[in-house]
TrEMBL record, chain A:
Organism: Parapedobacter indicus
Subcellular location: Cell membrane
Transmembrane regions listed in the UniProt entry: 12-30, 36-52, 64-83, 103-132
GO cellular component: plasma membrane
Native organism taxonomy: Bacteria, Pseudomonadati, Bacteroidota, Sphingobacteriia, Sphingobacteriales
Membrane-protein topology: Multi-pass membrane protein
Superkingdom of origin: Bacteria
Family named by the database record: Belongs to the CPA3 antiporters (TC 2.A.63) subunit B family.
Alphabetic keyword roster: Cell membrane, Membrane, Transmembrane, Transmembrane helix
Family annotation (InterPro entries): CPA3_antiporter_subunitB, MnhB
Domain Na+/H+ antiporter MnhB subunit-related protein: 5-127
The protein's name: Multisubunit sodium/proton antiporter, MrpB subunit
From TrEMBL, chain B:
Protein name: Multisubunit sodium/proton antiporter, MrpA subunit
GO molecular function (one): antiporter activity
Keywords: Antiport, Cell membrane, Ion transport, Membrane, Transmembrane, Transmembrane helix, Transport
Location within or outside the cell: Cell membrane; Membrane
Transmembrane intervals: 6-22, 29-48, 74-95, 107-124, 159-183, 203-228, 268-289, 296-314, 320-341, 362-388, 400-425, 446-469, 492-516, 560-579, 599-617, 624-644, 656-673, 685-703, 741-759
Length: 137, 769
């Protein structure tokens, strides 16, 4: 799409939307949001970028293929589920730090699980969309 | 014990990375595995001889009653020693036999896998564990039979074997679950206590039918026997190992193992005696007409399996002892004959018995093995076969009523024919003049003639000194089958009696038959005329028709038009839902429980209806897509009104991405060329309206149901205390129902991989052009 306004706007929108998606991810445990919707927003940010700059430019920007986020996310989610087993607790026991960290807030295994979901969603959506868009080009 | 059972599995896995280093000279190294296992199991002989048994318990899935329980008693020990002992020889034998084969590493991996599965099968005390190993033997034997995978016949035979044994395994599973369910335990040792209850239960007949189906298919009983001659396409060491000594005996093992649980009734006895009897006579008779050495051996193996089923069916202490003796007798002589055949095939390049003779001059150590094994199969005095044959006659003679005459005659006839088959395979190739074209044959690697010789000599040793095998193995094995002491022991000499007379008759008539009848291609042709009525042919026809049916069925349902799939899915859903809705009780359409309608909702609904109208009437794809997404956004707004922000956000993002996806795909398509015709549109309209109507009805109906908020109250009350989260939706997703979420993201990943590989594959294909 050759719209200068959209192109310029998307340069600024990309970081803002990404920040917003991380905001949604972090607040998910207490307010509306979460890994799934955060991941979707992040994907929309990249899709918007790819619309204006082309898929190849977005892929260059990402440096890694979005598909490689999938195993990372799955691994993170699985790790956060099974980590309590190391301490002899049942699978998926919520482990939390005593005190909230500045900016991020409460950190616990559920947050890492959510981060895993986030990464998988970004990976899946971008893989599907970019594959199809490259195919139709 | 667990390590012993799993070692084969581990070795077969290790072959994936390291196999290529073991391909050449080192291939023999893997034989240390069965040898070590043999020594390990042999170390239990003293305990078992003294009447003990050993139990191992490892919890696996205790909540489902599946545990890695192993129970070693006489029966398990007999089989374990056969599996590892003959396994050792086969492993050693295969190294020179398949020397330089491209897939030698694979062969050993399959063989180790098979050995582990077989060991697990005979040691498992938990029936579900037993079933898992049972299936593993089917699968590993599939790979072994189809080992020569560039041969179409070989592939087909392995498929048939897998189909028959797998189908039987399926039924067996049902039988085992039924047994476990009724007796309240999946442990065979604990089922022993519930045997009277099981036998008296209304479902006893079903259990028997299902267990028999499993055992008969695995042990190649009539009419499922035909997979075994087909399985002779496997390399000869495999035939020797799987199809004489071990795998086909798994069914026998199962029957022997369950004899104390299910046996002792007429329902148990008659099917076994009849099927065993038919099988042994039918296949022994068939072996008369074969000219391929391996086919002769295959049919005589089926006959031997028939004899074993028959003996277990009779169920007296004598017959069970006879069965345990015959298991060992048969394993020794049949494996020996198979291995001998393998050498002959390897060195002369033919297995046609009509063209082989006089090989004693060039393969003299092998001829000793072959002849000894043949004598043992014939039951000549001083061989182990003699003792086995005696016991079979003892068992048949000591039944009651008219049975002694019928059963003894049956056994006599089978034994005569088995003798003929044994002589044909073990003696015929070595006697007579040596044809000109075979004078260049030379003796192969010592491992290859040594293996059959060891087995044949063992047969002679046990024949002369039967107490060696009796105390340590056979009596404990029969004891385990009966769950009571047997009371008799093996003897070489019983004195002059009917049994001796019968043995004499067997020998004389068998030898006469061998002298008179010469195998020829003509007799092979004469039996092949009846192929059209053979079970193999009939099963083939059934398979063919079911294939044709499924092809037609698939083509009808799976025709590649997405719109047809959608239509079918929706119509099916409508019918199912409507059926349930209208038969589930009166439909009450009360609207008084609805909350008051606000002005925002009216506006959103108006937009929604307009968008729907646009979507169905527009003549541009893009407009239709945009209109659909407007519908989606309107629904998002409804979620917002009803305070479901999480849902609304997600739906909003998904809708956005869906539009993008649509545009990406539709962008490349031409504009609508022509709209669907009138009839199609009416059809689609009807289906869509019906779907909408049914869903609306259900939604209204649901409102009339009393609402129990226990679940949502639980989540609401506990989200913060248990999971430290205030957003209940998210807490459910990442904590309470985290497993669901994990599987959902796995499914998403699979979808992405699917799209990626489908499209990339096609991209690469078009790039090649």
């Amino acid at each position: 799409m050759n719209s200068t306004i959209l192109k310029t706007a998307s340069n600024y929108l990309l970081p803002i939307l990404l920040l917003f998606s991380i905001f949604l991810l972090l607040r998910g445990h207490y307010h509306p949001g979460g890994g799934f919707v955060g991941g979707l927003i992040a994907s929309i940010a990249f899709v918007l970028h790819s619309f204006t700059h082309g898929t190849d430019a977005t892929l260059r920007l990402l440096r890694i293929h979005p598909g490689s986020l999938i195993p990372v996310g799955l691994g993170l989610a699985a790790l956060s589920m099974f980590a309590p087993m190391l301490g002899g607790q049942p699978v998926m026991t919520g482990l939390w730090l005593e005190e909230p960290l500045p900016v991020i807030g409460m950190v616990g295994s559920a947050l890492f699980f959510d981060l895993g979901v986030y990464l998988v969603v970004v990976g899946v959506v971008l893989t599907i969309l970019f594959t199809i868009s490259q195919y139709s080009e | 014990m667990l390590a012993a059972v799993l070692s084969g599995l581990i070795v077969s896995i290790l072959y994936i990375p390291f196999g290529k280093y073991l391909k050449d000279r080192l291939s023999i190294c893997v034989s240390f595995l069965p040898i070590a296992l043999f020594a390990y199991f042999a170390s239990f002989i003293p305990t078992i001889r003294d009447g003990g048994h050993i139990t191992f318990h490892y919890p696996w899935v205790p909540s489902l009653g599946i545990n890695l329980d192993f129970h070693l008693d006489g029966l398990s020990l007999l089989f374990s020693l056969l599996i590892t002992g003959i396994g050792s020889l086969v492993f050693l034998y295969a190294a020179p036999y398949l020397k330089g084969h491209r897939y030698l590493d694979r062969f050993y991996a399959y063989l180790s896998l098979f050995m582990a599965a077989m060991l697990g099968l005979v040691l498992a005390d938990n029936v579900l564990l037993l079933f898992i190993f049972w299936e593993l033997t089917s699968i590993s034997s599939f790979f072994l039979i189809g080992f020569n995978n560039d041969n179409a016949d070989s592939r087909k035979s392995s498929l048939i074997a897998l189909g028959i044994t797998g189908g039987g395994g399926f039924l067996l599973m049902a039988g085992l679950i039924l047994m476990g369910h009724l007796s309240g335990s999946y442990s065979i040792q604990e089922m022993l206590g519930a045997n009277e209850y099981l036998k008296g239960h209304a479902l006893y007949g079903w259990i028997l039918a299902l267990v028999f189906a499993g055992a008969f298919t695995k042990s190649a009983q009539f009419p499922f026997h035909f997979w075994l001659p087909g399985a002779m396409k496997a390399p000869t060491p495999v035939s020797a190992y799987l199809h004489s000594a071990t795998m086909v005996k798994a069914g026998i093992y199962l029957l022997a193992r369950l004899n104390p649980v299910l046996g002792g009734t007429d329902y148990w006895m008659y099917p076994l005696v009849i099927i065993g009897g038919v099988t042994m006579l039918y296949s022994a008779f068939h072996s008369l007409f074969r000219t391929d050495l391996k086919a002769i051996l295959a049919y005589s193996t089926i006959a031997a399996l028939g004899i074993l089923v028959f003996l277990i069916g009779i169920g007296t202490p004598e017959s069970l002892l006879a069965a345990s003796v015959f298991i060992l007798v048969h394993a020794l002589y049949k494996a020996s004959l198979f291995l001998t055949t393998g050498v002959i095939d390897h060195e002369t390049g033919t297995r046609d018995v009509t063209r082989l003779s006089g090989l004693r001059k060039v393969l003299w150590p092998l001829s000793i093995a072959g002849i000894l094994a043949a004598l043992s199969s014939a039951g000549v005095p001083l061989t182990f076969g003699f003792i086995g044959k005696d016991l079979i006659y003892e068992a048949t003679l000591h039944t009651v009523g008219v049975l002694p005459i019928v059963l003894t005659a049956l056994a006599l006839l089978t034994n005569v024919l088995v003798l003929y088959a044994g002589f044909l395979a073990g003696i015929k190739p070595f006697t007579g003049p040596l044809p000109q074209n075979l004078t260049q044959v030379h003796l192969p690697n010592a491992l290859m003639w040594g293996a059959p010789l060891v087995l044949a000599l063992l047969g002679l040793l046990f024949g002369c000194l039967p107490f060696l095998a009796d105390d340590a193995l056979l009596n404990p094995a029969a004891h385990a089958m009966l769950q009571a002491p047997i009371g008799t022991s093996l003897k070489i000499w019983h004195g002059f009696n009917t049994v001796l007379l019968l043995s004499g008759i067997t020998l004389v008539s068998g030898v006469l038959l061998y002298v008179i009848r010469k195998p020829s291609q003509r007799s092979l042709a004469s039996i092949e005329r009846f192929n059209a009525w053979s079970p193999r042919h009939l099963f083939g026809k059934v398979a063919q028709y079911s294939k044709a049916f499924s092809r037609r069925y698939t083509h009808t349902l799976h025709n590649g038009f997405l719109r047809v799939y959608l239509l079918r899915i929706i119509v099916f859903a409508v019918l199912l839902l409507a059926f349930r809705l209208f038969t589930g009780g009166p439909i009450r359409l009360t609207l008084d429980q609805l909350s008051p309608v606000s002005v925002y909702e009216i506006i959103v609904a108006a937009i929604l209806i307009a968008a729907i109208f646009l979507a169905v009437t527009t003549s541009s794809r893009l407009t239709a897509v945009v209109a659909t997404s407007v519908i989606g956004y309107c629904i998002c707004l409804q979620f917002v009104f009803y305070s479901a922000p999480d849902l609304a956000m997600t739906q909003f993002s998904i809708d956005t991405l869906t539009v993008v996806l649509f545009v990406l795909v539709l962008f490349r398509l031409p504009p609508f060329l022509n709209l669907a015709n009138r009839l199609t549109r009416i059809r689609d309209w009807t289906v869509a309206s019906a779907f909408g109507a049914v869903i609306s009805l259900i939604a209204i109906q649901v409102l009339n149901q009393p609402f129990d908020g226990a679940v949502s109250r639980f989540y609401g009350d506990n989200a913060y205390t248990l999971a430290k989260g205030k957003n209940v939706v998210n807490v459910i997703l990442v904590d309470f129902r985290g497993f669901d979420t994990l599987f959902e993201i796995v499914v998403l990943s699979i979808a992405a991989i699917g799209v990626f590989s489908l499209l990339k594959l096609r991209l690469n294909a078009s790039e090649k052009e």
